[in-house]
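Sample 1 of the test manifest.
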Amino acid sequence: MTIQAVRGMKDLLPSDAGKWRFIEVTARAVFGAFGFQEIRVPILERTELFARSIGAATDIVEKEMYTFSDRSGDSLTLRPEATAGILRAYIENKLHAIPGPHKLCTLGPMFRHERPQKGRLRQFHQLDVEVLDDQGPQSDAELMVMLTHLLTRLGLQKISLKLNSLGCPNCRPAFRQALTSFLAGKEQQLCEDCQRRLSTNPLRVLDCKAAGCQEAAIGAPSMSDHLCEDCRTHFAEVRRLLDLAGVAYALDPRLVRGLDYYVRTTFEAVTGDLGAQNAVAGGGRYDGLLAELGGPAQACIGFGAGIERLALLIPEEPEAPRPDIFIAATGPKPRLMAFLMTQKLRRDGYWAEMTTDDKSLKAQLRKANKERARLVLFLGDRELQEDKGQIKRMDDSHQVEFEMGGLGHLFMNFDQAQADAEMQDRLWDAFFHSLMPLIRS
RNA sequence: GUGGCUGUAGCUCAGUUGGUUAGAGCGCCAGGUUGUGGCCCUGGAGGCCGUGGGUUCAAGUCCCAUCAGCCACCCCA
């Protein structure tokens, strides 16, 4: 049996590469306008980096990481998300010595060992942005403004923004306590996972989709009622700025993100057009994480967006690029001239094509048509003899003759002509002088 | 990790209660046009029927296993 790609790893074929390029250049333009600078970090890190940052009790760390030992016995992991590696690089390269905020962006593959389905792969790709050393709330709002700019520029309308505040280490314990006591006595209603979460992370019960859990959560205390003074004013200011900026969002008190490090602002961009995997982007504030990884106590916020999921939402490419000119040449001498001609045109940036072997003229035309070439230049012994080229505009079959200025005659006796390179250059110049107006028109 | 559905030509798919040389459309190649694409006509190439095992005189068809894809759960991008 032939070798297949590893499960959940997908090839990006030329037919889809245009969309990806569109997403990437658009993202770079949007992020650039907000002052973000690119950073590239390894896709492989020491396992403990992710275990410590993402949280040992999260699904990602518990069961989704691609972890293995290298030849020296170190435990390494293919990154399941981008933030941890960026923070590691930020600390290791002492970027924090320069006053912030630091706006960094990156893009590339992430790996999670899950069962593949629509919009979910084991190797997937994210756009990722981070603002390091900034407490917000302006940055919080700006990130969401930037995300909506990106989605708008990509032509995606049916996406809504969900927003929540998770509080901070000062106020969350109290809320957690309140929630735990509220759920006490309702354990039987909860799904297996949530019964376990009751002790590990009761907040997750709130966004569980299981009917019993949703029912049990009715009337549950809301984080928004338990925010401390600082968190409340922070969150209010984020919302005020979003309102002023005209960004639509929906408050979602059940939005609890799966990574442990989030505090205060969390947000997610969701769509109904992707089946069960409805999040196209998500992020939030992680003020304590940098210090936890051994860096300075600087507040940070960021988000990631799934490139595959964005690509699924972008309609088919309107039009593939087409060759500027196709040279249909028959016979050894004309083909030699055509070969040199295509190289010269390409050097000057024109997309020139010809067949790689001497097929029938009809077959060459068919190929030119299939590749949607704008123009076809006919080169045969007759053209060389008469020193006149035939050029045809394919869209309307309009065909004209043009003077080749001696180049045709030169290629009739190419062996002798080789000696005089200077004359050859002159003849090519004359030839292109006469051809270019036809190509450009 | 769990469940459901599906693997036949490059693509989309037919394939009778198991029965002899496995089909169609599209695409591809060539000819009809001795130097001109698209449309039309004619012909052609292209299949370990996902893989391995089993049942049977006989398996694309039935059984088991396995791999892969899709969808959902879980979770997230």
